[in-house]
Amino acid sequence: MQNFHYVYILIDTTTETHHYVSSTQDLQTRLAKHNAGEVPHTSKFKPWRIQTAIAFDCKEKAACVKYSFNGVSYSAIQQFRTE
């Protein structure tokens, strides 16, 4: 079976007003870490649930999408990768 790289969007389950975007190869383990408070950026607004997850066949594609969701342009990513 092929290993996929996922870009995921979390939403807090308490107020449903906080979102977090990241990537991983193991969605369930990563979600458990967020909800256990092991990720500093998300520990304040736990618990979380996965709102959206997109699978990619390579890490680079997932990274480009993740960064675009976080406000970094694709051209900026490409420029960074070629420097």
Structure write-up:
With 83 residues, the chain is α+β, with helices and mostly antiparallel strands. The chain has one domain (5-82): GIY-YIG endonuclease (3-Layer(aba) Sandwich), CATH 3.40.1440. 35% of the residues lie in helices and 28% in strands. A three-stranded antiparallel beta sheet has the order 2-1-3. A hairpin with a 6-residue loop joins strand 1 and strand 2.
Helix content: 25-40%
Global geometry: globular
Radius of gyration: 14 Å
> How many domains comprise the coordinates?
1
SSE diagram, text form:
Blueprint: E1 5-12, E2 19-24, H1 27-35, E3 48-56, H2 59-69, H3 74-82
Antiparallel strand pairs: 1-2, 1-3
Task: Give a short synopsis of this structure.
The protein is an alpha+beta fold. Helix content is 35%, strand content 28%.
Name a few traits of the molecule.
GIY-YIG endonuclease; about 80 residues; globular; 3-stranded antiparallel β-sheet; alpha+beta; 3 strands
